[in-house]
Amino acid sequence: MPTGVYKRTAACYGHKHSEEHKRKISESLKGHVVSAETKQKLREAATGHKYSAESKVKMSASAKRKPPVTEETKAKIRAVNLGKKNGPHTEETKAKMSVAHKGKKASEETKAKMSAALSGSNSYNWQGGISFEPYPPKFNKQLKQKIRERDGNVCQLCSKTREEEGRELTVHHIDYIKSHCNEDNLITLCSSCNSKINSDREAWTKHFQDDDRFESCHSE
User: Fold this and answer.
1) Which of 137, 146, 170, 212 could disulfide-pair with 194, CB 3.0 to 4.6 Å?
2) Closest-CA residue to 139 (of 174, 168, 179)
3) Are the C-beta atoms of residues 172 and 186 closer than 8 Å to each other?
């Protein structure tokens, strides 16, 4: 069979392979490894390539028509990836990712869509809207200042001082319940650590409550 670049004709679009054909393709590709040279050629060919607005619309419409991934497929993906290294990116990989994303800017429309997709009940950290609940009157300036002074005006996670923060440190509710304002349930944190502990709340609550200083922490 002659080699070269083949263009899809109009007859190709919308065509679906039979299950038998898919099986044959799958079997023929088993054990096939793409060479480093081929990978480099593919990268070079894709560098600088930009899809037209029309192509983006078609790709989006095509993705929406795809059925959800089945549990069987998920199991197969897990089996394929089992044992593969999925740890933190190496410095080399980070550098490549940085170069690949340089100059790229999301449009305001895209930013708005991303924000909507991760806001409110769509967020992985949605807690039922408790963040909108008001703080009680007893959680006032005097109480917060008392907690900061008790903790030496130092973040109890990273040891950042008020001077290093450049402003007053935050006073955090260990059990995340705003109405529980007993002193053993309050702790001083910098703004960065206060943001960090908004995920995996159960683990952070246990972390602070296991601390000897807060062993008497309880709900009012």
Assistant:
1) 170
2) 179
3) yes
β partners of residue 189: 170
E strand or H helix at 110, and its extent? Answer: helix 108-118
Per-residue burial over 2-12, b if 16 or more Cβ lie within 10 Å, else e, is eeeeeeeeeee
Is the separation of the CB atoms in 150 and 142 below 8 Å? Answer: no
In the chain, at which residue ranges do the beta strands (DSSP E only) sit? 170-173, 186-189
Domain ranges of the chain: 147-213
pLDDT digits (tens, 9 = 90+) for 142-189: 999 999 999 999 999 999 999 999 999 999 999 988 999 999 999 999
Residues 133, 150 contacting (CB under 8 angstroms): no
> What token pair was written down for 14?
């919308």
pTM over 0.85, yes/no: no
